[in-house]
Amino acid sequence: MCKLELGRGSGPESCDIAQSTVARNDVRRNAFLAREIEAHRRELESAVKSAGLAYECRTVLGKPAESLIAYANDVKPDLILMGSPRPKGCAGIRSRMQLDALVAALDTPLLVIPRPA
What we know:
Layout: H1 12-50, H2 64-75, E1 80-83, H3 99-105, E2 110-113
Helix pairs in contact: 2-3
């Protein structure tokens, strides 16, 4: 059921167009996000391997806080490292994660790494 209100047209065809546009935007956003994640993964993998450390990279699409909580409950890590939110004006997708809710729900210590200047 479509609950979008559109400025033009009121028939089901207007709703279909709006849903189609939303779907295309989601595909573009997910493709951009996948490329960004892969670039960061490659950079991290290189640094981790050169330090002789082991790590796991798992990508999950969903609400960031819920996904991270589920992952932490599944894996039971000793520590979670997370980058700080991207400031306005920086290229890329900004997360809207609520850190207070995340910290309250995690049983694992969380270390938020500041963004490099």
